[in-house]
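Backbones bend. Our protein:
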Amino acid sequence: MTSTSSSTRRRAAVERLEAEHRRARAELFEPGELLGAPDDEWSAFVTEGDRYVRHLELNDYPTTSDSCVYCGQGLSAQAVILIQKYRTYLDDALARQLQEAKQALMSSQLRLGSLSIEVLKEHARQTASANSAPSYAPVVGALIADLEAAFEATRSGRPLTDGVELAKSASTTDRLLSAAATSLATTLADLNSQREDRVAALTRKEAELAELVARLALARHLPTIRTAVGSHKRAARMDTLTRSMSAGIQRSLTNLSKQASEDLVNRNFERLFAQECAALSAPTVGLEFQGRRGQAERKKSVSQYRPSAVLSEGELKVLAIADFLAECRMTGVKAPIIFDDPVTSLDYLRMGEVCERISRLAATHQVVVFTHNIFFASTLLGLRDDRKLGYTFYEVRGNDEGKGFLQAGGSPRKDSPAQVGKRITKAIELAKQAASEPSLQDALVESAYGVLRTWCEAFIEQDLLANVAQRHRANLMIGGLDKIKLDRFEGAKTALLPLFDRCSRFMPGHSQSVEQLNIKPSLADFERDWAAAQDIRKAYISA
């Protein structure tokens, strides 16, 4: 608890400063200047007004242009002087000393350091309701009453009248409480020791329980563990045995592997290879199957010679295709099969056989063919048409940016009268747009005659001769002979030949004499020739 003598000194200082402050307040204002006596209520009223001024941040207050913060009316010169005296009174050093002394007195009021009086009251209630009250219980109630009286006196600023008696009572209670604290500390130490012993015992029992559970689990799984350990030992012995295998054992395995390969693989491959060679008319070669280090291998020979020593490049290529197809068929997997220009180095007699085999293969597999051989592609497409097989055609193109751009299409470029007719219509439109440049228009008309000559060839091949003989086709379509209209053939031929001669005369691809070069057809001449060509085709193909 704080010192009572210190509280008495501070209370005396507050009383002395209050008296001096009241005297100074009475001397500051002249008689009649205030409506009433400058008592404590008046001082509180002035203090609140000054606090409101500071809240409004009126640093230059008061002036004659301001309003009174107490009544809201305008300030006269006399009122300004009065309010300035108010502020002088509040700013006086004596007033600050009085405020500081009051704060010091409030801080010196009686209080307990770390114990609340409410805790003491709760403890007194608990000991009173207990069966066996402690030895210090009778004096606790009196001590609480004395403390509350002392707290109230210091809180209200009154001096303590019986501080000596209070100190004696507190000293007696302190001795009793010290003895009780010593006893409780001893009891607490005993309890802590018992707790530690019990925790240690619990730890030992838990360890014994865990060991017992582990032993029970081991007893359940012991047969399985013994089996696993035995298997591991056998595996280790087998690994050691495998590492120590001799070359003789390896040769024995090679012989066994060779025999199994001959029975299960080589005979099947030999049969499939013979079928592919027969389908491709490949030369007859012998197959020799060899084994090395447990792996099956094979090689081909012609009377004990290497095939490359006695066969042509085309024959070797056919044998390679037969080997490849037999290998693909032997797995039994219907995976896509890719050919990269398989007819390179082949003559045209073998090309047809290769085309026929690829066409039959496309009935059971997805086949991808890369080629730049027009005859090979045309033959494949012809077989596709005969067997009505589905296909997708891509053309690989290049431009200034690079090579290898794929463009989907129906087939390789094939001029038909309808397709070439679109090109002729486009050429006429360009020539009309160049009417302001005669030389350019003449060049476009000559180029258009070349396209018209192509139209005549397509008309002859596809309409007049009914596709019986087609370019890049190895065979004649004899069935198309019935489609040739013999009754109209002579008239179409008679009308078409002069037109074809005119196209050959004016097209830029043919050289002409100087006299003929100066005879240039006009756009109107070309339009008449184009109309005549359309009339010839219309008259021939009409029903």
Q: What stands out?
A: Residues 417-541 form one domain. Residues 163-243 form the longest helix (81 residues).
